[in-house]
Amino acid sequence: MKQFLFSISFLLIASFSFSQVNHDFDFEHSCAHAKSHHAQNDFGRYLYNWQSEYMDDYDVTFYFLDIEVSSTSLFVEGNSTTNGIALVDLDTFAIELKSFQTITQLLFNGVDYTNDITRDGDNVIVPVAEIAEGSEFSAQIFYNGVPPTGGFFSGMSNATSPYGKGVTWTLSEPFAASDWFPVKQDLEDKADSVWVFLTTSSDNMAGSQGLLTDIVDLGNGNSRYEWKSKYPIDYYLISFAVSEYQEYNIYAHPEEMDGDSILIQNFIYDDPQCLPANKAGIDETAPMVELMSDLYILYPFWEEKYGHCLTQLGGGMEHQTMTTIGSFSFGLVAHELGHMWFGDNVTCATWSDIWINEGFATYSNYLAEEYLHGWSSGQSFIKGAQDYAMSSSGGSTYIPIDQIYPGNEGRIFSGRLTYYKGAAIVHTLRHEIQNDDTFFEVMGTFQTDFTDSTATGEDFKNTAEEVTGMDFDQFFDQWYYGEGYPIYDIEYYNSNGVNHFDVLQTTSASTPFFDMLLEMRLYFDDTSDTLIMFHQDDNLTQFEIETGKEVMYIDVDPLDWTMEKVNSITVAVEENKSPVTFKIGQNQLSNDITLYFTEKENTSKNITIADISGKIVYNGQTETSEFTINTNFLNSGVFIIRASDSKNTYVERFIK
C-alpha cells in the first residue's frame, strides 16, 4: 500500500516519482499450498489481548460478503459467511468484529447461536456443538453498523470527490478488516476464495476483487454487484469501493500469453472531465503489467483481471486484482501493481516481514522507471530512495515483533525503513549477485515457490541462496536485520605507477560492519577513467592497482548500486608502513573511536591520547589489529592520538 502523509523532508524526496502508503516517493480454486496449523507465537496477540486464541482452531477456506453499502455513508448492513475446516475438535467458534457493528443473528452450521454470543474486545466468541478435527463448517453472521473514520488506516472511509461524487471505500491493512466485516485477521490463513456481493443505489457502481459475474437490478432503485474470485486471498486484501462511477477498460498482452490479453478494469468518477484527466496514467498500466510479467512471472491473477477503483484515498492500496487508488501517477500505479506479485500472490507471513510486500513493491516502481522511462530515470528514483533511507542513522527494515500491534501502524509502514530502505536492500542484493539473469531468476523462483501463499524475509533469503549458490547470511544480518549504513573514509596515493588505496568503513548505527561489493570510478591525470570494484571484507581494506597513471579524483558508487555515505577522500604521500600505522573510525552515537591498524601482525603497541596542550589524558596498550576506546571521559575538543612500538610512532588528530 502507499500513502501520502509525512514530513516536509519526505515530501521533498517524494517529488522524484515514488508512490504508496508512506510509500509514495512521489507513501476460488483449492489452495496450491496446503495450510498447516501452528500455534501462533504472535506477541502482539497476547501482549495486547486483541485476538482470541480460539481463532487458531480453524482454517478459513471461503468468505462470502452480501452487504448493502452507500457512496454517501459508512453504514454497512448485511451478512457474512465464513467457511472453514476445524484444526482441532472444535467446540468454540471465534471471529473478529468491532463492537460498533451490531450482530443481529449468528448461525453455525445452520444452528442459531445468537443468544450464546459473548464479546471480548473485538472478538466474537460463541460455544457451538462440537465438530471433529478435519470437519468443515459454515458460520453466517448478520450485522449492521457505522465504522468510525479517522485517517489512512480506517477500515472504511467516505468523502466527496472534486467532481462532486460521494465515494466510500475500504482499507483493512493491517488490523482494520473487522471494522466492516467478521474476519479472522491471520496473515498465514489465506481464504481459498471469496465472493463479495454489494447492494447499492442503481446510480452507483461498486468495485471489488475478482470477476464481476452479474449486476442484478433489484427493482427498488438498488442494484447488486456480484464479484467472485477463485484465487487465495489474505483477509486485508478483500475490499470494495462505491461511487457514481463510469467504466474504462484497457488490456495488457504479456508475451507469455501468446496474443491473449489481461483485462485492466477501471472504475473512475462518472464526470466528462474525469477520464481525460486520468486516461494517460491509466493507459500506462498495460506496459507495466507486460513488463512485470516478463521480469517476475506471468501476472498471477490473469484469469480474472487487474484494475483500479478511483477514490479520495491519499495514495493507494493493493486490493487483490483491483487497487483502490487516489490518483494515477506513474509511480503510484507501478507500486500498487507490483504488489500483485509481492503482497498479494506472495504475502508477508508476519507484519515483521512487511518488506516482502512494501520493499519489493517499491523496487517494482524502480524497475518500471528503469525499463519504461530509461536508466537515468531509474537512477534518480533509486538514489532518492537511498538518500531518504539514510536521512536518519538507524532503524532496521525487519520490524521486531514487540512493535507489531494496533496503533503502531506508522512503524510497520515506515516510508524510510519499510519502503525505501527495503527497496535499496533489493537493489544492493542485485549488485551482489552480479548477474541480472540470475537476479530475476531469484525473483521468479520466489514467486513460483510461494504462489498463493505467504513468506518471510528468511524464505526469500533461502530462495536467493538456492538459486545463486551464494551465502546471504551476512548480507541479511547487516542490511535486513541490522541498522544503519556504511560510512567511508578513503585515502590513496601513487607510487611508481601503482595506485594504493586504504578504504576505512565505519557505520552509522549498531551494525558494526557491512561486508559488500563497492564500485569506484577512478579519474586519471590523462583525463581517462575506469570503473573498479572491490570487496570490502574488513573495516579497513587495502588494495593497489597498477595503471602507470596517477589518480586525480575518485567517484564512489557512481552507478548508485549501494547505500553508503562518503565522509572523506584524501590524497596522501607514500605512507609509513610500520606496524603502528592506523586509521581512525569514529562512532558519534557511542563516542567510540576505533584504531584500525594497517598491518595485521600482532605487534605490541602503546596508545596515548593528549589534549591540545600536550597533557596525556589516556594510556593504553594493544596487540590486536583493531582497538576501540570509549571517549565519554573526554571533554569536547581536539586531541592527538599516538601509537608506538619500540621503533616507530604514528600520530593522528581527532575531534571529540
Put the structure in a nutshell.
With 656 residues, the chain is α+β, with helices and mostly antiparallel strands.
Describe the structure.
With 656 residues, the chain is an alpha+beta fold. It folds into three domains: 2-362, Immunoglobulin-like; 485-575, Immunoglobulin-like (Sandwich); 576-656, Sandwich (Immunoglobulin-like), CATH 2.60.40. It is built from twelve helices and 37 strands. The strands form nine sheets. The protein has an eight-stranded mixed β-sheet with strand order 6-5-9-3-2-12-15-14, with no helix packed on it. Helix 5 (330-338) crosses helix 6 (355-373), helix 6 crosses helix 9 (415-433) and helix 10 crosses helix 11 (457-468).
Any chance you could write out the topology, listing elements then pairs?
Blueprint: E1 2-3, H1 8-14, H2 43-48, E2 58-68, E3 76-86, E4 90-96, E5 101-108, E6 111-112, E7 118-120, E8 123-131, E9 136-145, E10 156-160, E11 166-170, E12 193-201, E13 205-207, E14 211-217, E15 222-229, E16 241-243, E17 245-252, E18 262-269, H3 274-283, H4 285-295, E19 306-310, E20 315-317, E21 323-325, H5 330-338, E22 346-348, H6 355-373, H7 375-389, H8 409-412, H9 415-433, H10 436-449, E23 453-455, H11 457-468, H12 473-479, E24 486-495, E25 498-507, E26 516-524, E27 529-536, E28 540-546, E29 551-556, E30 565-571, E31 582-587, E32 592-597, E33 605-611, E34 616-622, E35 626-630, E36 638-644, E37 649-655
Helix pairs in contact: 4-5, 4-6, 5-6, 6-7, 6-9, 7-9, 10-11
